[in-house]
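Protocol step 4 of 6: structure prediction from sequence.
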Amino acid sequence: MDTNEIIFLPSDRDSSGRSFGDEEVQLLREVIEGGNLFCVPGNMVPRFERAFADLYGVPHARAVTSGTAAVHTALGALDIAPGDEIVTTPITDMGAITPILFQGAVPVYADVEWDTLNISADTIRPRITERTRAIIVTHLFGNPCDMDPIMALAAEHDLPVLEDTAQAYLATYKGRLVGTFGDIAAFSFQQGKHMTTGEGGMIISSDPELARRARVWADKGWNYDPKAPDHEFMGLNYRMTELQGAVGLAQLQKLPGMVEARVASVGLLLDRIEDIPGVKIARVHPEAAATWWRVPLLIDVDEIGVTPAEIEAGLKRVKIWAKAGYISRPAFHCAQFTEKRTFRDTWWPYSAHTAPLPPETLEEYPGCRDALRRVLVIPWTEKHEEEHAIYVADQIRAVVESKRAASVSGGLET
């Protein structure tokens, strides 16, 4: 392929990279013509919940308004309270951290394995204290964590596990879907995820009491008990609308095919870059199957003398919107922590409890430090086809070879 020819890639921000069609339109029409957009007397959201639970082989699912709402609802179901500590990853979206703070609890960060970008039992163990009340396990980029040791560690300390599966639809570990290992799991239907309702989320669980609490918590604590209706405990209104439920139900029917297409095209990309020195995909557990939300490539700067930022810049010149470092900084280096901006100027919940402060440097998190220095993230959708995979691979090769040649010759890139 001529590397000077620019090919415009599918984007999850518009129809070029999203699989919307007559199925979504038909279900939306049913909702609009029926005149009710409210999920409580509706049927689209309940149908969506049942279908999602069936897909994951669990008895309970609760649809909510966003992935952040899903995490918050799961924490509410777990009855997380002020003063509790929640072990989590520093490489995640802030939407998975802020709900911890709003519960008055404190996020305690476990390091990640630099070559998977995931936390592990070994990195979680030293972060557990007598105040730890739960572990959040994030399957980053759709790459499953090593769950057996994590679940064994959680059982050893009698701690519930919340799986953040926002980026890991239909990914498996030892033949089992991630999201079904922990006590409760949270999903996101944000615009860029494997399936989308624009915004939206889902909680699943096999524990009937956790599922009941999640349903009640996301409905302002209202229990709908015909014998004793009441606001049973404090909760928020995170109910999904029938419009979102309609789109979600249609998308869910397409999900297996969309995931299959995504995995196939990423496989083509990886085959074509396999021989590029110093460029490889994040490590996947040998008994896991990743379903790549984005493509996290690890760049060995020492081997090839080219940085992820240099590759990012080169790819952007040919309209490939790669991102060096993914989130650029770990969660604990965002301004709300470094500037102590939580609840006004109180620095609560840190100020009210004896709890570990967010780290000031990355030196005690070498895995996180090295992962963010090495990773180059390539956007991907189910609409990427063979020509797109070849184009991205060839452009990566061209940038790396050009930078290496310039470095060896001591000259300037032309």
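Step 5 (inspection) to follow. The CA atoms of residues 71 and 224 lie 23 Å apart.
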